[in-house]
Amino acid sequence: MRRVLMVFVGVAVLSLSVFAAHHTVADQVIAVTKAQWAAEMKNDVATAMKNVADDYTEFNPDYPTRLDGKELSVTLAEAFSEGSGNLVAAEMANPKVQVYGDVAILSYNFIGAAKNKDGEIESVKAKSTRVYVKQGGQWMLVHANFAPVGD
Question: How do 138-148 and 52-59 pair as beta strands?
């Protein structure tokens, strides 16, 4: 009986460790994403792009093709930081993080607000997926897909 109890306790501890490790990764990946949004709201492009991999790719509704490379993303982020459409609020609804070793896939609904050129607040929404890879101890964004949400 004691041996069965010890096996049960061992399995329970191992299960909790795996569960806790998964949530730690999920928390880390979500924190990296929210830190990027916070930097974008301050127009701090360097900090916003800190966890973006050099070979980053992105699909978004503003362009008809895939965007390739961190350099292009930095150029576009710098251009947008100078104009209207500045992000003033960002929230993540329904986040789900799937972890496969050193790869984490974050999917969520983006809910935000941006100030237009006339100073009016407009809603921003998207169905979003981000793929992160752990490189050098940091979660780096390697791909994102931001799909529009119909009105």
Answer: parallel
Q: Which pair of structure tokens corresponds to residue 52?
A: 């973006």
CB-based contacts of 28, cutoff 8 Å, min separation 6: 139
Token output for 9: 């306790």
pLDDT tens-digit map of 23-61: 799 999 999 999 999 999 898 999 999 999 999 999 999
User: Phi first, then psi: what are they for 41, rounded to 5°?
Assistant: -65, -25
Identity (one letter) of the amino acid at 39?
A
Residue 59 CA to chain centroid, in angstroms?
14
Q: What is the CATH number of the domain that holds 22?
A: 3.10.450.50
Number of domains in the chain: 1
130: nearest Cα among 148, 93, 105, 109: 105
CA distance 100 to 109: 22
